[in-house]
Design a protein that fits this description.
By secondary structure, the chain is of the alpha/beta class. The protein has one domain: Rossmann fold, CATH 3.40.50. The chain contains ten helices and eleven strands. Helix 8 runs parallel beside helix 9. The radius of gyration is 17 Å and the shape is globular. The model has no long low-confidence stretch (mean pLDDT 94).
């Protein structure tokens, strides 16, 4: 009997927790669709400041909270919350921190100005998710990274967490959407990334220049096993970059074909290993 594929969704947006967008719809619909296609699912997203905890019935998971994540020599407490989408029989885990998420919007402030620490936020989110998955003792076959907030995950999976049992065999997919932080807004990108053997030398060996505006996007692509065009026409330069590295790329499928296309793409990456 063939075992269920385990898919870890590291999402950026999901309805009903944030306003509707193409990404938020995908964040809600794709995990359920793959669950209905006999995949086992775990889903994470940031606890953005716009999320109403009471209305959405979020509550803290004490056994998973409590650790500190050190970024650029500064401690940041990790808080884990959870909520359920009853209609889909899905649990959603939320990564929270007062400095990075709790009272802040997603990409930009009220005046539309991009947050200067977005890359730090992405680093915290990536490590927060991966440390929590370790505590859950759950081993995904595929790690699906949605949007810029999850863009550091592929780098960590292939470096700092490479030998960790939950991630040793996992394939990583990056799904690209419109927003991508400008890496030139920080001069400490490399320092923020440092964790175990995830360092500037590992980035350099991959040929990624963190001083370029699209450094975060290139970091995500270079360490992924597959790349998906989440929305039609977004980041053509990153899709070409993926192709230049011989990384499989899935062009944006029609809405009514997404679930089947994503499942086929996952099977392309991991199916042969199980057959």
């Amino acid at each position: 009997m063939k075992s269920k594929k385990k898919v870890l969704f590291i999402t950026q947006e999901m309805i009903p927790y944030v306003p509707e967008s193409a990404m938020a719809l995908d964040g809600r619909q794709l995990p359920q669709a793959l669950q209905e296609k006999d995949c086992e699912i775990r889903t994470f997203m940031p606890r953005w400041g716009i999320i109403n905890e009471r209305r959405n019935q979020l509550h803290e998971v004490i056994r998973l909270s409590g650790m500190n994540i050190i970024i650029d020599d500064t401690d940041h407490p990790l808080i884990i919350k959870v909520a359920s989408i009853q209609a889909a029989r899905m649990q959603v885990y939320f990564i929270d921190n007062d400095d990075y998420f709790h009272k802040r919007a997603m990409f930009a402030d009220e005046e539309g100005k991009e947050y200067a620490d977005n890359i730090e936020r992405a680093v915290f989110y990536a490590r927060g998710v991966l440390e929590t998955v370790k505590k859950l003792r759950w081993c995904p076959d595929v790690i699906y990274c949605q949007g810029w907030i999850s863009a550091v995950v592929p780098f960590y999976i292939k470096t700092a967490y490479r030998e960790e049992p939950p991630f040793a065999q996992a394939k990583v997919i990056s799904s690209l959407y419109g927003e991508m932080p400008n890496a030139t807004l920080t001069d400490r990108f490399a320092e923020c990334l440092e964790h175990r053997n995830a360092n500037a030398e590992a980035v350099k060996q991959a040929g990624v220049d963190l001083t370029q505006a699209d450094g975060l996007g290139r970091l995500a692509v270079a360490f992924s096993d597959g790349v998906i065009e989440g929305e039609t026409g977004v980041h053509p330069e990153l899709l070409e970059y993926a192709k230049s590295l011989n990384i499989p790329v899935l062009a944006a499928p029609a809405d009514d074909e997404k679930a089947a296309a994503y499942k086929a793409f996952i099977d392309q990456l991991v199916g042969t290993e199980e057959e």
